[in-house]
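USER: Write out one fold?

ASSISTANT:
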Amino acid sequence: MIFRTSYILGGAGFGHWGEVLTVAAQHRGLNGLLIDGGVRDAAELEALRFSVFSRNNSILGTRKDFRGVFERPVTIGGVTIRTGDLIVGDVDGVVALPATDIDRILDRADARVAHEKQIMSQLLNGATTLELYNFGAAGQ
């Protein structure tokens, strides 16, 4: 996954995370960050290939008022995330898959991707979305 920062309204007016914490996190084997707050140093984080999903970017200095927690559930954007959950994100957003249901969800996702590939192939061969989705003739 490459670096993407979500530009979602809200969040703090200052950065909670930047280049220094990223280098420290990478040194400890972490690959990315999902934070319900702001980050700074976007160009540096991208150069470090550290995936970040945040509320906003902030040019203001970071504030480190909270140490964080490990091995405890956290709530981000109204979603509770527990140790072992799978976090998946790209430029469109982020989802948290519960550890107890990962295999079933991934199987369904694989089936959807395969179906969409089939649809794309049919579209490239001249089919229309009206035909493929059985919408019938226009105006019906």
Observations:
- Helices lie at 19-27, 42-47, 102-124, 129-132.
- The chain has two domains: 15-97, 103-132.
